[in-house]
């Protein structure tokens, strides 16, 4: 029995459950509280390297918060205590949300997720997946109808259809790329006044 426990610890099979003191960005799967699809679906404001150093996992075997897992957040994300459970320190949590929301599993508490979806959307917002949020076919519709599901609340409906436009803003001024930019990189290139073409228009 002791050897089984030792092996479980060595291979990370003994998981720390999410503290019941802070169930932000979680859902109950019928057995345990696990992180929701919007818990870690954003980028850290600070670098990932900084966040890993600032918010050290409770044990070397702990995984970072991710959709569907139940690893506890690093303590510094939500408390000044030294053991689980510890009372929430709201100043510490506010700092974590502002700087390292992905590392701490707090993406759903950022302004990008704090708005209302349309009352009568064209798609069922509850059924929207992360892949749909990244898809050029769906992104414009979701930015307009289901912004809170994809973290598009700060975009006011204007979005880059292609993920990664912001990685090379020189594309905005490249000769011969005007049509591509107007269709796919409206936010990065300040083309929000340009209407987007339906993804399926022109197809037979």
TrEMBL record:
Signal peptide (from-to): 1-16
Coiled-coil blocks: none
One Pfam family linked to the record: ShK
Keywords: Disulfide bond, Signal
Domain ShKT: 158-192
Cysteines engaged in disulfide bonds, as pairs: 158-192
UniProt cross-references to InterPro entries, sorted A to Z: ShKT_dom
PANTHER family in alphabetical order: SHKT DOMAIN-CONTAINING PROTEIN
Listed name of the protein: ShKT domain-containing protein
UniProt organism field: Caenorhabditis brenneri
